[in-house]
Write a structure and sequence with these properties.
- It is a single chain.
- By secondary structure, the protein is an alpha+beta fold.
- The chain has a domain of 93 residues: K homology (KH) domain (GMP Synthetase, Chain A, domain 3, 2-Layer Sandwich).
- It has 4 helices and 5 strands, in the order H-E-E-E-H-E-E-H-H.
- Strands 1-2-3 form a 3-stranded antiparallel beta sheet, with no helix packed on it.
- The N terminus is likely disordered.
């Protein structure tokens, strides 16, 4: 049995209606019921310097800090990688939606920036925790789209899975493990 056409998300109802199961998606970055949604990411750093090697499946990326921050600028910094994830997910979500609707979206371009700012009604502005992370996302839609289609795509951009993760409560669980020999 072939894999279903890619979708933004799957529910147990979708699978039961097609006779499928979560087993069909193993190794494809999709699981259900609070299980892993992507391949494991391994990040390795050497004995010195800030450059990191990121391995995801057969892909290898580098992360580093700019020279002004003590790095060698051999790759994007961690916040730039986070912005890349949001921008990529936004573009993919918009592409899938426009294709499904048959809309003439030729290209999407997302420019993102990250900054730290104070809350408007900051009571304890002198406290470091009073700073808020702000991501600005500017989306350019290229194609002969109506005003209604453009507005709908703006709404859909906020439904991209990475955006939803970033704007929800994220539970990061950290544990120490022994090195394997």
């Amino acid at each position: 049995m072939g894999y279903p056409k890619p979708r933004l998300w799957w529910t147990s109802t979708d699978l039961s209606e097609t006779g499928g199961s979560s087993k069909e998606f193993e190794g494809h970055g999709i699981t259900l019921g609070g299980k892993n949604m992507s391949r494991a990411v391994t990040v390795s750093g050497g004995p010195s310097g800030l450059q990191q090697v990121i391995s995801v499946g057969r892909h290898e990326l580098f992360a580093d800090e700019p020279k002004a921050s003590g790095g060698h600028d051999e790759g994007p910094d961690p916040y730039e990688l986070l912005l890349s994830a949001l921008g990529s997910c936004t573009n993919m979500t918009l592409r899938m939606y426009a294709d499904r609707k048959g809309w003439p979206l030729k290209e999407t371009r997302v420019v993102l920036t990250h900054s730290k700012t104070y809350a408007k009604d900051c009571v304890n502005c002198e406290q470091p925790a009073a700073m808020l992370d702000r991501i600005e996302r500017r989306i350019t839609l290229i194609g002969e789209l109506s005003a209604e289609q453009r507005q709908r795509l703006l709404v859909i951009a906020n439904l991209c899975p990475v955006h939803k993760s970033l704007t929800s409560g994220i539970d990061v669980q950290t544990e120490l493990v022994e090195p394997s020999l």
